Amino acid sequence: MTTYKEIFGKPIKVLTGDPAPTPITYTVTVANPGSGNVYYIDGVQTPTLELYEGNTYNFDYSAATGHPFRFATAADAAGSTEYTTGVSVDSNITTIVVASGAPNLFYYCTNHSGMGGRALTPASPSEYTGQIWYNSTLGSFRSVVAGGATRSGSSMLTARSNAASFGNTRDASAAAGGYTGTANTNVTEEFNGSGFSSGGSINTSRRGARGTGAITAGLICGGYSSTESNATEEYDGSSFTNGGNLNTARFFAGVFGTQTAGVAAGGSQPSPAKNVTEEYNGSAWTTVPATLSTGRENHMAGGTETAGIVCGGEPPITNTTEEYDGSSWTAGGNLNTARAAIQGSGIQTAAIVIGGNNPTKLTSIETYNGTSWTTSPATLATARDSAHNAGTTTAAIVSGGVTPGPTTSNTTEEYDFTANTITAATWASGTNLPSVRWNTSGAGIATAALVFGGSTGPALPAFLNTTFEGDGTSWTGGGNTPINSINMFSAGIQTAAIGGGGLASPGSNSTSAFTYNGSTWTGITATPYATKGAGGAGTSTAALIYGSDVSPSDNVSTRSWNGSSWSTEGNLSSTFSNGASGGPTENSAFAAGAEVPTASTRFESYNGSAWSSGPTLNTAVSNNRGMGSSAECLSIGGYNIITGVEKFDGSSWATTASLGTGRKQFASANFTSPGISNGFVAGGADGDASVEEFTGETTTLNYKTVSSS
């Protein structure tokens, strides 16, 4: 009989579950099996753990608080070898984010010896691709399978087609210029892996230019403004400067290489398509003897000056491929589907084309291995051509372009070939509020939500004092607020919230403040100033309020609440009201956008004593709302009832998943830490009862059942 060890070269590992789910929480208990106390992990006595690099593990020792759970590089931390890289402790939970290259570890009790065991730290779970194990819980042989898939991505700020694409990777790429559907544009947008942000504008608005190089050392050339262009521009990561002109003006060329060693091949001027090749040395273009065997435009290009590739294009629409070695062009493998209006990306031995037309718009994707093209089972959700495209055969992006209609688009799809299943961030419809709300306030999270106050709409509204509590599936009535008011500040959770101020019926600015215990609102000390439109952060016993649209002197004011009284804190650097605010603690507050005196791109964060200005939003907004903390937050919607959402990742703002319904002056909340998932928005617009809930991007391994036992 043949054994699995003989087939696979090593024994099949038996696991109680699939390897490396993340994050995962273990329950830690302590018991004496007869030889002294030891740890039990999920009921198993001192098991050898496998903690995979890049994954997050929580060890909850709440049932054994006298035995603090820690990690070390030697048993019982002999020789003071406690391991702290990626380790944090909060409320009797020890969390470890396993670092790349982490050593094998031991877990131990800081108070007693001999209680712990080993914690192995294998490499990233993606290395399980193609391997097999036996899952004893499922009774099945399992494996991790890599494959191609597309998913929705964050929209571009400006809808456009025929932009110049450059950037060596998907998550550090840019689109410059293009056509908005009505005019050429000079706008540049940069993609950082989660969304788009504004970059430096090109000097001459144009469409049909083509680009290459890195996002910090980019090159664009050619294009069409009022006529065919020979202009070249170089990008340094923040601004464009003019470079040497092409010898032959053209648009829809194939451009590849780097900023100092680039190639432009083919293109249109305006017809017929050119077969001319030029090389760039960082200052000037030189026409070289090598010419394409067939003149083409609107084709894919990629690679380096000495190992380049072009394919597809028109006229007529073709499936041919040509490869460049720095001196001549030779034929490569044909595309399976002839296509034009593509840019594509990659290198000569690993290229990708997405969409295009033939002549109808396509959804298909093909990858090249240096010899032949393979059609991926993955397809675009929306057919498109003339789109921004950047990345590699394992991680690519296609944005904008022209979709059926025809419509100039700003939507994005991302392609991944990976062992992971990546689910894009999204807003999903929740259960409607029992009645419409406008200028309402919120606290809590999507599955434990609180909405209070507001009005029935902007036209002759009825000011409200009612409260709704939500559990993620339904809403029920809660206790009434002490006043009928709109535009109140809010913070906290469903069972411990704080709110107040606003514009109270019949139209007076209020200083009232109150806290909620899950059933009843109770008045507390009035705020030192009227707080209509103020931001809020923190909890019912440690809150922060800031800004206002009442008195000019209070537009920058900040006050803290300690559960019994209000104290003056450092002022905001600029006026703020009716913008995005939030933070699970008073030391993690943020303010983004504003309507005092006009819509704004401002962003400020609070560290417990002072406000500091940070990277600005890409689009000025007012009447927007927020969720998250100063380290990671969202700016959502705003005037004039928009769907746009931007995400701050700790360093910059970029677009993320848009709302399904445009809204302004609505309730929003996620007063938990960490992260932004499980937040919600409710009401808004000009009288609306709809609810949407936010889930951030998630990544899970693509497990497959090979066979049953």
Describe this protein's structure.
The protein has 709 residues and is mostly beta strands. It has 3 domains: 21-121, Immunoglobulin-like (Sandwich); 149-418, 6 Propeller (Neuraminidase); 435-688, Neuraminidase (6 Propeller). It has 1 helix and 69 strands. The strands form 18 sheets. Strands 4-3-2-6-9-8 form a 6-stranded mixed β-sheet, with no helix packed on it. The radius of gyration is 29 Å and the shape is globular. It starts with a helix and ends with a strand. 51% of the residues are buried. The model has no long low-confidence stretch (mean pLDDT 91).
What's this model, at a glance?
The chain has 709 residues and is mainly β. Helices cover 1% and strands 40% of the residues. The model has no long low-confidence stretch (mean pLDDT 91).
